[in-house]
Structures are given as structure tokens and as C-alpha cells.
Specification:
Layout: H1 8-11, H2 15-25, H3 27-37, H4 43-61, H5 68-97, H6 122-144, H7 148-157, H8 164-173, H9 185-194, H10 198-226, H11 233-257, H12 262-279, H13 283-308, H14 312-318, H15 337-351, H16 358-388, H17 391-403, H18 406-418
Amino acid sequence: WSSDVCSSDLCARPARLLVMTYLLWALPTLAVALAILSGKVKVTHAAVLGVCVAVPVAYWSGPAQVDLASAFARGGWIGATIAPYIFGGLLFWQVAGKAGPASQNGLPHPPEGMTQNLAATKRSQRRQLFFACFLVGPFAESATGFGVGMLGTMALLGRHGLAPRQLMVFGLLSQTFIPWGAMGSGTMLASVYARLDPAVLGLYSVVPVTLLMAVWLPLFWRTAKDAGHAPSKRDALEDIAWLSVAIGLLAIATWALGPETALLAAFAPLIVVRYIADNHPSRAALAATARRTFPFAALIVCLVGLRLVPGLNGVLSDALRIQLYSDLPAFSPLKHAGSWMVFGALVTLAGRRLFSALRPEAIAAWNNGKNAIYTVFLFSIMAEILSASGISDASAQAVAHNLSTAAALISPLVSGGLGD
């Protein structure tokens, strides 16, 4: 590593010792990565290990003196602003997606209005493959996260007699809109450390996602062909057109609304249009579907409205606003999408007169999301420790200086290797 970017203390060290210093600084990240790659350690436990390694490394070898108590508090605050997305999304999806109490395994199911069988023809079945993989699956993943979109996609397609490997590929394709998964909580967290506006970071994310569709769409066609649903040229062009419109609307919604609710707002009307075009439902069937999916539509309208109505956005942001740190996100409960998800679940239960279902549904949502919530808190604390000690900044400068423009190219590979 070049000494041009290190502190005066580091620059005085021999080159070999300098390399050892950077390797020492990488130990917390390597510990987490190796623990997860072993397949024997849960992500939450790996995050605990990362924090335990980061504390001594930062305290005794960091370029700057670190206040561990402050780092823990700041990391905890960041986690607290992200956790409502996770819990609220899961709770609302469970409550709005079905009319009864929590299911036995606690997993939410796709809304019934989105799971109607298409006509039993090859072409209509092939159209449902696209509908499940690139519209319903991402929508469910955006509302909840945790692979629920994949489970919903596989549930939709499980009745078509697909081979397990084909079903797995289709399920994984529903995860291609990762920056907007779990109400964009990952993008919101990344924006804190990137010092970027979440809407800007989300908009930047549209570019790699669009480029990757040049891989995912041919994989979809290849797998569909292998399953006996080979697309014609017309089908392929239709898929490209739908996906282009979806990504275009997603980009606009991300810029206007931010990554939390962008995919929900962009894909909801597309799902409705596609459902009507594929099923040609009668007026009675359409009315029944509208009643079942009304909670989703109402919540999306509210989330979009509170951000676009002049003056309302500012009023809700300022009301009950809590900001413990000037350089970290504030918590505005009247604007936070996670709070609105919880409120939407309560209103839905009240409208269906299912107050007794609140406790089991809340427990199910917590059980499904608690590991992700713990992990967010732990990784936020670990990131704050490395940042406060100067390790993150010094390491980034060294990578940028030694790799130059290649640093931008290697970043996605490092991110993909160490987590999604």
C-alpha cells in the first residue's frame, strides 16, 4: 500500500508493517465473511463476532481515538431508524394478505387477488411466469424483505409442475430488485454511510439493476424454455416492454418518493393492469379482488400522498421529530414508512373486526424479522466503530489511491462477496 494516503504515524512504518496494519484493520470484515461462508454460523452470530473483533482492533490500532460508548450509541440509533421498516412491513403484509389470524408457520402469503389462476394454456402459463418473477415477487419483497418475494413466487408457480431447479431459478429472479427490498432499508442504511440522499443513491442503483436485466431476462427465457414454455419473439418483446416500463416507473418513483415506497408505488398499477389483461375478470370478480387488495392500494396512496402533497411532507417530518445526532437520520414517526405500515395493519384489523389477531400477528412478524433487526443493529454498531476509529476512511483512501479507477469496478465485487 502506498504511504501517500496514510497518517503521519502510518507513513513512518515500514512497508511490510503497513501492509500488516491494513490486514489487521480488515479482520472484523473478514471474520464476518468467513463465519457466514462456513455455513455453520448464523448471520446474527457472525455480526456479534464482527463487533467483538472490531472493538479491540479499533481501540488499539485505529488511526484515531475511538469513543466506544458513542460508537455503540450511534450505531444503535441507526438501527432504530431502520427496524420499523422490517417489523412494519412484515406485520402489514401478514394482516392485509389474509383475513384470519397468523398462519401456523407465521409466514405471510401473497394477497389472494394476485394469485388467481390464468387460463390453462401454454402462453397464459408463460405469462404468469413473468408476472410472478418480475412483478408480484419484487412487490412482495419490497413490502417485507427476507426472501418473502421468493416464497410468494414459488407458491404462485408451484402448481405448474415445474422441476425443483426451475422453480428455484424463478424464485431467485424475484430478488433482482434488491435495492428496494424490505422497503429499501438496505439502501437507506447505505445512504447514511455514503453521505448521500437516499433518493439519489436509489436512483444510482437503477443503472446496475437495468444492466443486470440483460442477464436475468435471458436466464428467465432459457429456464422457461426448459420448462416447456419457450417464448416466441412476440413474447420476448412483450417481456422487454413490460420490464422497461417497470424500471422507468421505478426510477421516477425513486426520485420523487425515495427508495422506501418507490417500488410499491411503481409496481402496484402495473400488477393491476397485468392482472386484468391476463385474466379478463368479470365485473364481480374484479370487485372481489379490489376488496381483497384494498388495504395495499390504500396504504400506497397514503405513502405517495404524504410525500407529494405540498406542505404535508414538511409538516409530518417536523412533527414529533427526534434527531439525536446532526449527521445521522432523524426519526419522524408520522412520516416514517414503517410507522405507516404498522398503522395500516391496525386499521385493517379494525376494519375486519379482528382485534384478537393483533397479538399473534405481531408475534409472528417479530419472530420472522427479529434476526434481521438484530443484525441491522450489530452491523450498524460495527460500522460506527470502524468509522469513528478512522479505519474505514484510511482503508478507503488506500484502496482508491492504489487501484485508482479500478476501485470503482472492484467495489461491487467486494460487496457481492461480503453480502447483498
